[in-house]
Design goal:
Layout lengths: L2 H65 L10 H15 L2 E6 L4 E4 L19 H8 L3 E7 L6 E11 L2 E11 H9 L7 E6 L5 E5 L6 H4 L5 E5 L6 E6 L1 H45 L12 H37 L3 E5 L5 E4 L1 H7 L3 H5 L3 H4 L2 H15 L5 E9 L5 E12 L5 E10 L1 H64 L5 H30 L7 E4 H15 L6 E4 L4 E4 L1 H18 L7 E9 L2 E8 L31 H11 L3 E6 L5 E6 L3 H4 L1
Parallel strand pairs: 16-18
Antiparallel strand pairs: 1-2, 1-5, 3-4, 4-5, 6-7, 6-9, 8-9, 10-11, 10-14, 12-13, 13-14, 15-17, 18-19, 19-21, 20-21
Length: 696
Amino acid sequence: MSLHRFLARLIWLCVLPLVVLAAYLAIYNIQATLAQSDSEAAHRVRNAAVAIDEYLRARLGALRMLAMSPLVDDPSRWQDLYREAQGFQQSFGSHVILADAQLRMLFNTRMPFGAQLPALPTPKGRSAARTALETGAPAVGDSFIGPVSHLPMVAMATPVMRDGKPVALVLSVFEARLFQDRIDRVSLPEGWVLTLLDGASIPIARHAPPAFDPEADVDPAGRFVVSSTVAPWSIVLEIRRDVRNAHVVRAALLLALAVLGATLVGVLGGRLAAGRLGRAVATLAEPSAAAPDVPEIHEITAVRAMLGEARDQREAAEAALRDSERRFRATFEQAAVGIALVTPDGRWLRTNQKLCDIVGYTQDELAALTFQDITHPDDLEADLDQVQRMLAGEIETYSLEKRYLRKGGAIVWINLTAALVRQADGSPDYFISVVEDIERRKEAEIALQDLNASLEQRVALRTAELTAANRELDSFAYAVSHDLRAPLRAMSGFSHALAEDYGDRLEGEGKKYLNQIDIASRNMAELIDGILALSRSTRGELKRERIDVTAMAESTLAVLARSEPERAVEATVEPGLTLCAGARMAEAVLDNLLGNAWKYTAKSPAAKIRVYRGELDGKPCICISDNGAGFDMAHADQLFQPFRRLHRHDEFPGIGVGLATVQRIVQRYGGAIRAHSAPGEGATFCFRLADEGEAA
């Protein structure tokens, strides 16, 4: 057998194990790809389940606070409880129901208080209301169709416990679309489907592509299910069969091509190398075929150079390792935070000086202790629970704030971050613990709490001052209403009596003076009425109800038309105008704005007044425009000031409090008002009131 053929067979024998190893690696890589995909899917579905549970716990906690309210025990105060429940609705976007132990609704924030209500519906699966009554604990039920909204709903209930027995229920009903929104916010790779199922396996929400069929499109191995710890629900993540298999096919194809290419390159290269080596050996075996001074073989020279280079690289690697270890030791010892290596049972393997400074022990003293020995007893259970979860593989790292007991017995607050290093076989090796001294931060938090307490006191003091100011304002309004009206009525009455009894004896100047007294009395009465209206606009309870602005404006214009039947005013009111406010406040706004439009169009030959829907700051509003006298926008800053007028009294009578009253009412409702005008071209006033969500 020739040397060339022997070397070729030897090359094939060397390549064959590599081919087998490559095939094994290909299979292993495919399995690893599937395992990685499955691990990611399990992690995502667990995160989604935790998010849903936290979402439910927050709302159950709020319902529990309502159930503990003493207002539940007094039917006469249920309307106050109804308003508190509306606060829950504004915070969480769901309505609240109070029901008795016989499952009869007492009120439902979806309906006005006192409205006739149907009985609570009974879902096909688990009923939150019945479960809460039977267990005496908060419960979440299965989905059902709401009797009022006729939409898919989900209910949660908290029993009202008195003397250890449930006497009533506080329920919250959510539209299933809220959970759909949360499911849709979960970022998923293409072809992954996330579904929230109730206890009866009915989908509450699903994030899936169109025409998805879980039975036909998903293998059992591609389905991951996590049960909720709060509700009888489950969260299911499914990977479509074609998506799951695509990773396998792609990885197998790439690896097969790589193995084939590597094999061909190896065989061809080996054959070339074997031929060269054979020829070199042949020349050495036949000295007669070569010159007397046979040169050194290049391959042997290359091997010798490679061995020398390998030796140099090994020495360089050893030096780099020593340098890396030196840097690690320096970083470990000089770090600004405490660092330690801890065994799985809590013994200190290695600690840096910063940790010793934090706890007051030397490194030798710590080596004889465990972290359990210096952890505050009240914090030990929470710490050990996280350690067990990490050892079980549930978490990879954790961080918590806890207290250490220093050597002298003093307490120091620290922030601990721990990670587990495992051996090659997956068994726990040691923990890496990073300990940060947060004592100053805790002191700052205490100082901040003290500051918040002082701020609350100042707020209470300011509230008391505002209350006193309101009482003074009420006293002033009372004085204006009673103390000033009495002498005014006397002055007006005596002037009228003087005119009736002695008017024929008065000369021209006397009658003029008497007439001026009467005019001044009327102006003073109007001024008092304006002051009282301005005062009332800043006080009183702010009510919110849906007001038909169209009907109210038409009624006000009709009253104005009857007051001056000789005027021909073209008034148009857009249909369907509404706003949320108290009826008295809304009427005051429209009366003043329409009254001004009526007054300032008195000298227009073809008077026009228009009430329509407009836009203010990008939001819908109500506008009132006219083609009357108008005003100069250069003086617009005086427009809403009390008792400031832009026209003479002899041109257009008035006292100048109407627009000031309107502005105060609009501002109390969190809204805004704007005016636009030009002299002789009329004026337009647009206003909007904040809705309940904005006002909150």
